[in-house]
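seq as requested:
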Amino acid sequence: MRKYEIMYILKADLDEEARKAEMDKLAQLLTSNGAKVEKTDESFGLRELAYPINDELKGYYVVLKVSAEQTALNEFNRKVRHNANVLRHLVVVDE
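struct tokens:
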């Protein structure tokens, strides 16, 4: 398994409960496909976006450190693209 860093931006208008549920759902999506979430970092938190994304001006940033196979990442990318609560996501190799 390779190590990856996944960053995604959630809609700012989600309340605390909905945001936590969405984060758990996305982590579960990875772990159910054999990945291991090693760290979840919310230190960026709520920030203004550099430019509007789908008419949103703010977003909640989350960074995950993950050990995963490519198949788990492919499934994550496929599902997150259709998730209305995720504004943007990025997966990079963590070296």
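The chain has a mean pLDDT of 93.
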